[in-house]
Amino acid sequence: MNRLFSKIIERNDVKDLISEIINNNRYKKVNIPLTIDNNYFFNDNYALFLFMDALLKFDIIIDNINYIEEYVSQLKRLFKRIDNYQDISKGINKIIASTCLKILNLNNYNSSENKEKILRYIYKKYIVDGYFYYGFSSCSKREIDFSGIKKSGFILDSRVDEMESILKKYENKDIIKKVDSDITDNFIIASYYAMSGPYYLERMANSSIFNKACYDKDAFYKKDINILIKNLEEYAKNKHMSIDDTNILVKNFYDILIEDNVNHSFGIVAFIKRSYLNKNYLKNIEEIVEGSKYLDISSSISMIMESRYSSYDIDDDISSIYLEFLEFPSYKYLCGEEKNVDDDVVVINLDEVSDSENSVIIKKKIVNSYGFISIFMILLLLITLISTTIIIMNFIWR
Q1: CA–CA separation, 175 and 196 (whole Å)
Q2: 312-313 and 324-327: which strand pairing?
Q3: Cα–Cα distance between 388 and 22 in angstroms, integer?
Q4: Which of 17, 32, 294, 295 has the fewest Cβ atoms within 10 Å of its own Cβ atom?
Q5: Torsions phi, psi of 350, nearest 5?
Q6: Are 100 and 122 in contact (CB under 8 A)?
Q7: 134 beta partners
Q8: Residue-level pLDDT at 57
Q9: String of b and e for 317-335 (b: at least 16 CB within 10 Å)?
Q10: Half-sphere exposure of residue 348: CA atoms within 13 angstroms, side-chain side
Q11: H or E stretch including 326?
Q12: Which residues in the chain come in under a pLDDT of 70?
């Protein structure tokens, strides 16, 4: 999908601001709506998702790169000044309104007539011609390309099913529960699923079994296989898990992570036209426009763009021909980390098992077999070259 969003996310000013939002502790204080906080594992990243949502709204509503520099500049001032999502959302709506003023060649948005023009413009862009979203990991791209969005959800790997059985034994509840697919009109939620997936990682992170301080929660976004395995080992140790259960749990998890190439995965959001779902209208749009006379324009914009379907169960499968895809940079790329994770992928050695069930029983080794072979071959060639030289010199001296 060739959206403006893809160009915007590569801008230096945008990358700098995203890196600051991720790494600066002040942005981690941005509060999260209770309905979202209780159902999703955002960790300290909610400000990042608010910012991504603001960029998507620029893409859909403004759709003109000429306005992006000022838009990002205003977003930067807004995020530095405010640390609660309500006021950030209002501020984003005002920035959108002021940009629409320029597009529509209006002087201000205080008059009822100008408010109506702006609101109807936003309504057409965001609702009538707008989208629902479905977030997923690049690990599932081939499946989505082939089958589209299946109502029944992803095909559950038998190894994940085995992991679920073991976790349920120690937790007395479902952890990696398979659920039907649902889509959303909330880009923040779709982005969350995209960046926290694949689905089994999101389920595990959101299950709260890794809530304690001893676990590194960033691993679920950074897709750091070393730390993901270490978290699971620590969990098995804390639960006094049997050796057999730990072996199966950790080995299955490791094998799936490697096969899915999770360390190189990134998020994808599928766009589904609202018109395809017959959800491209608001029954109360005239009431919103009429009531805008007595309200701040940001409140009226919020009434149009607020999420009404944070989780919408689809009636049937959605074929891939009705989907457009937007790929996200990986979380580590957004953090400014470009380390080649292949150099330190863990290798599991199940031959060495501790006698204590309370200890970590999976030994990790950091290896680089190609590097070892390369050095060995160079030494071998040098020895061969020296030996050959000595033989030739002896022959000449005779």
Answers
A1: 15
A2: unpaired
A3: 59
A4: 294
A5: -85, 5
A6: yes
A7: 270
A8: 98
A9: ebebeebebbbbbbbbebb
A10: 23
A11: strand 324-327
A12: 1, 338-398
Question: How many Cα atoms within 13 Å fall on the side-chain side of residue 21?
Answer: 26
| Residue (of 93, 95, 98, 79) closest to 30 by Cα position | 79
Instruction: Report the length, in residues, of the chain.
Output: 398
pLDDT at 250: 96
What's the whole-model pTM score? Answer: 0.84
Nearest to 131, CA basis, from 251, 309, 301? 309
Q: Which residues contact 237 (CB under 8 A, 6 or more apart)?
A: 358, 359, 360
Nearby residues of 211 by Cβ (< 8 Å), 6 or more positions away: none
Centroid of chain to Cα 106: 38
**DSSP state string for 290-307:** HHGGGS-HHHHHHHHHS-
What is the Cα 156 distance to its own chain's centre? 20
Residues 256/173, Cβ–Cβ less than 8 Å: no
Q: Report d(CA 334, CA 17) in Å as an integer.
A: 10
Compute the distance between CA of residue 301 and CA of residue 71 in angstroms, rounded to an integer. 17
Q: How far apart are CA 97 and CA 93, in angstroms?
A: 6
| SS3 per-residue string spanning 41-69 | CCCCCHHHHHHHHHHHHHHHHHCCHHHHH
Helix residue spans in 125-261 (DSSP H): 141-147, 158-171, 187-196, 199-206, 219-222, 225-238, 243-259
Q: Rounded distance, CA 227 to CA 247, Å?
A: 17
Closest to 177 in 3D by CA, of 190, 187, 167, 192: 167
Please answer whether residues 276 and 123 qualify as being in contact, where contact means their C-beta atoms are separated by less than 8 angstroms.
no
Report residue 355 as tokens.
């006698």
Euclidean distance between CA atoms 168 and 265, whole angstroms = 27
Find where tokens 């509060």 sit.
31
Q: What pLDDT was estimated at residue 194?
A: 95
Distance spanning both ends of the chain, measured CA to CA? 75
Residue with tokens 């959101």, as numbered in its chain: 206
How many CA atoms does the CB half-sphere of 367 hold within 13 Å?
11
Per the structure block, which two tokens stand in for 138?
């690049």
Tokens linked to 392 = 């030739």
CA distance 217 to 221: 8
Based on DSSP, count helices (H) and strands (E) in the chain, helices before strands: 19, 7
Contact 268, 259 (CB under 8 A): no
